[in-house]
Amino acid sequence: MLSKVWMDCARPKTVVSNGPNAWLLDDGTRLHLQHGPIDLLIEAIGSKAQVRLAYEQAVTAFNTVLNTLADQLPVLRSQFVMQRYTDFNGDVAVRMRNAVIPFLKLPLTPMIAVAGAVADYILECLTKERELTRAQVNNGGDIALYLAPGSQVRIGICSNLSQSSVPRDVITLNSNDSVRGIATSGWQGRSFSLGVADAVTVLSDCAASADCAATLIANAVDVPGSEKVTRVPANTLLPDTDLEGQLVTTDVQMLDPSERAIALQAGMRQAQIYIDKGNIRCAYLHLQGDTHVVYSKCLLSQHAKGCHS
Hints:
This protein has helices at residues 48-62, 65-70, 73-76, 91-100, 114-127, 207-220, 234-237, 257-276, and strands at residues 21-25, 30-35, 38-46, 132-139, 142-147, 152-157, 169-174, 181-185, 199-204, 229-233, 247-252, 282-287, 290-295.
């Protein structure tokens, strides 16, 4: 368990290799939480006292997240069926379960939403009973947002997960927008992908839903059977993956314009289905320099300015 010592140091005095760690960054303006594969960057904007209390709440909540998830990995890594609706313990696992339900026409495990669900949970704990202007929890690119009335935030849209260049598109989200979660997926990201997208960024009402949809849309951006795409069974790269023997993408050669168009059209169709159902608000699809965006009419078109729908 973490003590409050972390509040008084720029870096943790002791990094616990098998336990949760916390430290402050940028003169105390941001909080870094890490435990095993979970790595969170947190920023809260408000008075110094309110931010300190918010960060304390986040640290307290973070203490048990990984262990609670680890205790139920067999359920979380199994294909979800409604008959197992009650087989989930803890706030994060329940959020994972709820996130996959709207997408159940495809075989899914709740692990598809784990990063976004963690971000959503920590954000809720961070902001509970606190007076903040805005806050965000970034879990490896899956972001949960809090915006107080009248506030806004600018978010860069990644066009290639293998590059750290300046974002091609930057959107402004206002407090009256419905978007509170952003997630990005692609074949070069930290999670496996079945498709060829360089990046698919989804805007939704929570990070868990965005996480799930981004993965599924990125999977759909594909050129099945192409010799230009290298795929291997997921469990040869990570033996305990919930994807088991499904073929995941490890390399994509340069595709010709018609191949890119086919792949992006497939992804756009999938995104439109989720938008029509109200599951997501917007999706940016990027593939080898080509960019398309699909967005809900209820989301102002200015958020997609500069892209092709």
